[in-house]
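Schema walkthrough. Field components (list of strings):
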Amino acid sequence: MSDILPSSLFIQIQDASGNWASDFAENVIIPKIPHLPVELGTILVMLACAGIFVAVVPLLPLVLVLAERKVAARFQNRTGPMRVGPWGTLQTLADGIKLIFKEDFIPPQGDKLLFLLAPYVIFACSFAVFAAIPFGQNILVSDFNIGIFYIMAISSVIVMGVIMAGWSSNSKWSLLGSLRSAAQIVSYEIPLGLSILTVVMLVGSLGMKDIVATQENGFFSWLIFRSPFTFLAFFIFFISSIAEVNRTPFDLPEAESEIVAGFHTEYSGMRFALFFIAEYANMFAVSAIAVTLFLGGYEGILPGYDFLGGFPGFVIKTLGLVFLMMWLRWTLPRLRVDQLMNLCWKYFIPISFFNILGTGVWGLIFKTDDIWSIGISCTIIYVGLISAYALAGRVFSRKPAPQTS
Amino acid sequence: MDKYIRNIYKGVYSVLVGMRITMRQFFEPNVTHQYPYEHDFEKKQNVREIPKGYRGQLYNRIEDCIGCKKCEMICPVDCITIQGDKLPKGEQLWDSMNVVHLKDGREIIGILDGDDKDINLEGSLTLTNTTSRLAPQEVIDRLEPSGDESRTQTISGDEVSRVVTRNPVVFYLDQFDIDMSLCMYCGLCTEVCPTECLVMKDSLEGIEYSKFDRTDLIFEFDKQEMYNKNDESSIEAAD
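Field assembly_structure (string):
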């Protein structure tokens, strides 16, 4: 743990037991406000930190929505929003203000309670994920020992909100969208969980900080290079997480050309904005998780690197993955439902099981992550990629089978 | 098993090919014009030229206008309003003069030596009393012979595109308004105009039709100060 920067700058509730918070309460708050119980002070400190977090994180979608629009425009040789603020940088703010003032419509035939509750479920769950993501050495809300398990669990609750929204809207588009979403998320949770498992098997811990701590020796100690199986697992994780956050090419639940807007068809105004914000927060969250698990988290390319607790490096890596998502979005068309399930059940899940097996064997052979294991793993990855590239010509040189009509 | 691996290959390969294509697009220059704010279309790539005969904004070169009201009469939507009157008999605003249009867009106004009827462009033209101005799209200053006998200019016939004779002005034009919110761009008024002073612009430059008040779309072409011969401060020679 580095103490280069004053810890008061950051949110630092390090241990699940709240040691830091209670220390802070005892030493700083109690002398100023006498007769305050220590427990209450601790809770106040925790609430204050959480408040900072909850206030800062929603700014992310504000930036990401603009980034998405600008990147989309760039891919189509346009300029994107240009009128609101310099180069359209305040466009999202203007959109938000517009959404606040719009009518909050509730379908009269729907289930009113569920309809009102659904956006909050989705919003709360997608923001709860951020509690376990280590943004930097001292920048995380809580470092509990089941971090990645908690993230898996809480992000799966989002599908509950989606089904609630779809059911309560009393609209065929919403219902179809939510059913598709349920099928998709339930399916893709499996390869997602299995590829996380490969990492957990190698590290031996579920805590996010523990996972990052094993990647502190520079670029080649990142878990993606630790074994050929984690290399595969990274891609499976990334593609599955795209499916998890319902983005193109897996955006069946909100396919606008088929089912208007999917599960949030009937929502308007601020409730719609909540879905929208949650979607972009999710996008950032899964990228951040991928960075933490596979790409070194807040650890940098060089071992001694400790600038601002690794926070800028973490954000750059995460935004790189977010850009990759946008790039994929403007490259690939939407899959059909059967193609989606085909990809998951016939390809990702068998490969993930193979990964688990391979990682187990790898862990038995190489007990520690010394230079030998990393060297051998990098060599295997390199040789595999090269031979795949060389074989590609042979695979595609075969004539396609004659079409029977 | 063979087909299985082949499928994976194909999937990965086609995604990578697609991503390469989109990434190439990412670095292409954009084609958007920030139109009312940006007029230098020539600098942009992928810009189509404005076609010949494009009917743009109506524009009256008021110094050539003789106030005949033909355009006002023929306009199907009555978007042109002209008010003016003849001067008392024997009075005129200025004498007849010649306008020499040069090929580089300049115009030189003065009185040609010799007869207007047989202009020989193979030799050179000599103008006295000259006033010249730059491109016709510039704001029209007062355009009349400078009144300075010593200002003489000799122009080579190669540079001249055409020579126009302007008759002495014997009328007074109070108002020449065109309501562009009514105009239907039929171009009839430009066809009937005897002096060809009423034209439709063939460029988009400087045109901004989005206004908060519809009366801002009424373009006024009367130049009261043009008739004020005593106003010496507005004499400007652009050469």
